[in-house]
Every structure is written in C-alpha cells, then in structure tokens.
Design a protein that fits this description.
Blueprint: H1 10-19, H2 31-41, H3 47-56, H4 63-66, H5 69-82, H6 100-103, H7 124-127, H8 132-145, H9 150-164, H10 178-191, H11 201-213, H12 218-231, H13 237-240, H14 254-272, H15 281-308, H16 316-325, H17 335-347, H18 353-360, H19 370-376, H20 384-401, H21 407-416, H22 427-437, H23 443-462, H24 467-484, H25 492-498
Helix pairs in contact: 1-2, 3-5, 5-8, 8-10, 11-12, 12-14, 14-15, 14-16, 15-17, 19-20, 20-21, 20-23, 22-25, 23-24
C-alpha cells in the first residue's frame, strides 16, 4: 500500500508507528526511521509546514509531546522568526501596507529590480493561526532565545488579539465562550514586553476594555492600568471613551479614566525618585521629561471631559474630581477646560449656584484665548463673577495688543480695587451680594458690562491711571454692578471674592506671557466688547 505523507498526516503516522513499535530492531528501514527522516529533511525546514505540523500535534497529545515533535516544531518556528530578513526566501502571509521601496513608488527607485524588502514582523500573521496554548509556547520560545525586538513581539500580540478576539476593535466580545476569551486576554497580558513603547497605548486601552467586559481578574486589569499609565500621554480622546458597564447609569466609564490618570501621576513621581536628592538633574528632569507629557495628558483630559459632559447622567463630582487631578498640569491655554465646563453647563441646566461656582473655579480666566473670551463674555450660562473676570482680562489684553503700553497701569488700577488689610463691609451684606455674583447674568446685563469695561480701557489709554482716574474706574464698576444688585455697594471684600485666586496678575508677567494681560505678543488678536456676534466653542 502506498501512503503519501504530508504536513497534515505525518504526526498521526508517527504516533501510530510508535504505538505499533515499528522500530529498526524489528526490521531494517522500518516506518519510524522513514518518518523521522521525512520530518527532519522536509517538514522542519519549511516555515508553513512547521506551523501546520505544530497545529496538528494538539490532537495527539501526549504522544506528540513525548516524541519531541512539539519541541522540534517550536524550535523550527522560533529559529526562522530570528533569521536575517535578507535570507527569507519562502512564502509568508503579510496583509499590511507595503513600504514605498516595495511597490516601486520610492522617489529614489531608479527602475532597477531590487531584492524585495522583508519587514521585521513578516511572521506574525502566520502564527496567528495557532491555538492559544501553542501560540503562547511559540512566543515564549522566541522571547527566550533573546534578541527579538520588543516592538515586533508587541505587534505579534496585537495581531493575534485582533485575529482571535471577535469584536476586539469595538471593545465588545460576544458571550459565546467567555472563559476561553478570558484566558486569551490573560495570556496576551502576561506576554506583553516590559519595555516601554513596545505596544501602543490605544492597544492597551482596548485590551483593558475587553478585560473589563469579560470580567477578567483584578490582577490582569491592574497590570493593564499600570502599563497604560506609562503611555497615557500617547492616548487620544477616542481611546478613552470607554463604555460604562451595563449596571451603571452613566454612558462612559469615567472611574476607569480617573484610575488611569492616577497611574500616570504615580509613574511620574517614581520617575523623579530615580535621581538622588543631591543630583542637580533632579530639578531639570521634570521640566524636560515630565512637563511635555503632562501638557499632552491635560489636553486629552480636557477633550475627554468635553465629550462625556454630553451625558445628562454624569454627576458633577465625577467631572470635578477628574478635572482637579490635572489642574496642576501645565497648560498653555485653558480653552479646553472652558469648553468642557461650558458643555457641562449646557447639558445640566438644573445644577445649583454653588455647583456652578465650583465647576467654574476649574479654569483660569487669564489663560483663555481671545476667541474663548469673546465666547465667555456672551455666555449666559456662566456666573456673573466669571464674566466680569473675563471682561477685565480681555480689556487688558486688548490694550496690550494696541501697543499703548499701558497694561501695567491698567493692571495696577484693577489691583487697587482689591482689598487691603481691612474690610469695611459686613458679613451679611457680603453674603447677600455673593448670591448675585454667583447668579447667571442676562443678555442685557452682559451687554452693559461690556460697554462699561470698554470705557475703562479708553479712559486708561487716554488719561492714564492716576489716583483720580482710579476713583472714576471704581465708580464705573459700581455702576455696572448696580444694574445687577440694586442698592448694594460693591465693597472691597466683595471684590476680593470676585478676584479670588486671581491675585497673581502682575507676578506672572515673566511666565505665561502669551496668556497674561501683561503680554506684549503682537500676534494676539484684538478683542473688543462691541462685537455682538456669538461664537461657539462647543
């Protein structure tokens, strides 16, 4: 009888021959000897045949393991994955985008036939066909040999996840076999290279979302969160928009994002502690290594808050807690957090005055762009105190842009309205007036405020801020406030509350120059209160 051997039946034939004890001692040239020669000279020399044979060994365990067929296949596959790409002359599956030099579109390509370029990750798609256990053993063998780029290992794991986890790209795995998929996520997590940037932040977040939906163990989720914390500055807003569990009332999982920011902050603290206290680089390291990543994280979180604010069920405390975590991060502009605040106020009309005041404290009016200021001074959702703050800074910036050089005097005039050591108003009067400051102004009141602030700028420009002019400005401000709070006198203590935490105007003239009223940036667009067109940042 003639039997044709191939990669699909050679394992079955070898195990059967072993069971029948068809050794050389029984007859010269017996079947076991012939099968071993075929495996060594043909199967293990072929890339795809080695993968096929390895796949078929699972059916014949433990025989295939005891006969060392599995170990020979693992060694064959791992060795070929390590081979110099210039020596890869066999077929392989590769569906990724080719490089310009491969398809003839390279501008330096002179039409001469070149040897085809083989990418470093040429082998990852073929191995994605392996069963979970076998795939784990192959990757472990490749890593054990050493020398393989961690980026290539990371790409192999990413390709396997997308190949073996249905719905992985959407973060929703069907519940047909949750135990199997839980094991798969655990396996991929355990095989992730320890080197930073070996896998993308987007892939790690997708893996975390899958682990949450599959209810994987806390150890796996904690490890993924720790790794994401190392890469959070690479994340996008779309990456962080994780759907909340089914038992939650909110649309997005804000709590998980809160934990990711915590991990990011822990990573930065541990990074600083790597240097001894007497090392002068201790002070330089955060500026060069941490600040740039913090700026990126703050920008992403601002954008994230603007998106999740559209959820009518999002509690204020979750919004504020997440925003406060990045409040100390350097930001060239506060337009992002302003947009998030405005979106929240727009979607949550029923919040109280105290809640509105609390959320507005998250932004610094001095760091709003001219466009954001134009929007804010016409924003009927903001408390009156915030609108007045924005108006003052807008006028100061407009004065600077005009080239008059009178901004320091104007700033001094504003600061002269701030309280000194003593306050003349009673506590009850202050409390009553605070309620009006925290109220939402009407469109007419906003228009009146803008007009009066315009006169302040003109007066300062034409006359200069001497003592008499300072009194005139204060009277103008009181006139504006009188329109809102009839019969109430604007005391210095009240103005202190209005400008709470904004008393660093002149002190910051050397920093944040592009944002502060003392800036001489000629490129800043001039903003005038006479514009009535409403601009929307949201």
């Amino acid at each position: 009888m003639t039997v044709t051997l191939n990669a699909y039946n050679v394992v079955a034939a070898r195990c059967a021959a072993e069971y029948l004890e068809m050794y050389e001692t029984v007859e010269k040239g017996n079947i076991i000897y012939k099968l071993e020669v075929f495996l060594t000279s043909s199967i293990f020399r072929s890339w795809k045949d080695s993968i096929i044979v390895l796949q078929t060994t699972k059916v014949f365990l433990p025989w295939s393991e005891e006969l060392k067929i599995v170990s020979h296949c693992l060694d064959s596959v791992a060795s070929k994955a390590y081979i110099d790409t210039s020596k890869v002359d066999w077929s392989y599956t590769y569906n990724r985008k080719k490089l310009p030099s491969e398809n003839g579109s390279d501008p330096l390509w002179n039409g001469v036939q070149k040897q085809q370029y083989v990418p470093r990750d040429w082998w990852v798609e073929d191995l994605s066909e392996l069963h979970i256990d076998l795939y784990k053993r192959v990757i472990t063998t490749i890593k054990t040999k050493g020398g393989m780029s961690p980026e290539v290992i990371g790409e192999a794991l990413r390709a396997y996840a997308y190949r073996r986890l249905p719905g992985f790209s959407k973060g929703k795995i069907p519940g047909s076999d949750p135990v199997k998929y839980q094991y798969l996520v655990d396996m991929i997590t355990s095989l992730l290279p320890t080197e930073k940037h070996s896998v993308s932040c987007s892939f790690l977040i997708r893996l975390l979302q899958t682990s949450v939906s599959l209810e994987c163990g806390e150890t796996v989720q904690s490890e993924l969160k720790r790794r994401i914390g190392q890469h959070l500055d690479e994340a996008s807003v779309a990456d962080l928009l994780l759907r909340a569990p089914a038992n939650e009332t909110t649309t997005y999982d804000v709590d998980t994002v809160h934990e990711l920011v915590q991990q990011f902050m822990l990573q930065k603290r541990s990074g600083r502690s790597d240097f001894p206290e007497d090392n002068e680089f201790q002070e330089m390291y955060p500026a060069f290594a941490s600040d740039s990543s913090k700026v990126k994280v703050a920008r992403v979180i601002d954008g994230y808050l603007a998106e999740v604010s559209r959820d009518p069920n999002l509690p204020l405390v979750k919004f504020v807690n997440l925003a406060e975590m990045v409040s100390g991060f350097p930001r060239p502009s506060h337009d992002g957090i302003y947009r998030a605040i405005d979106m929240y106020l727009k979607e949550h009309l029923g919040i109280t005055k105290s809640e509105r005041k609390r959320i507005c404290k998250l932004m610094d009016c001095r760091k709003l762009s001219a466009e954001a200021c134009m929007h804010a001074v016409q924003n009927e959702r903001l408390p009156l105190r915030v609108v007045v703050q924005v108006l003052f800074f807008e006028q100061a910036r407009a004065t600077t842009s005009s080239g008059g050089g009178s901004t320091p005097d104007l700033a001094g005039t504003i600061k002269s309205l701030l309280p000194g050591e003593s306050h003349g108003s009673s506590r009850s009067a202050t409390t009553n007036t605070d309620e009006d400051w925290d109220a939402v102004p009407t469109a007419e009141e906003l228009k009146a405020l803008k007009g009066e602030l315009a006169t302040l700028r003109l007066t300062d420009k034409e006359v200069g801020c001497n003592d008499t002019n300072s009194i005139d400005i204060k009277m103008s401000v009181e006139k504006v406030i009188g329109g809102k709070a009839k019969g109430l006198i604007m005391s210095k203590k009240l103005f202190s509350k209005l400008w709470s935490n904004k008393d660093r105007l002149s002190e910051n003239s050397s920093s944040d120059t592009s944002e502060s009223p003392g800036s001489s940036n000629a490129g800043e667009s001039k903003s005038t209160p006479s514009r009535s067109r409403r601009h929307s940042l949201s």
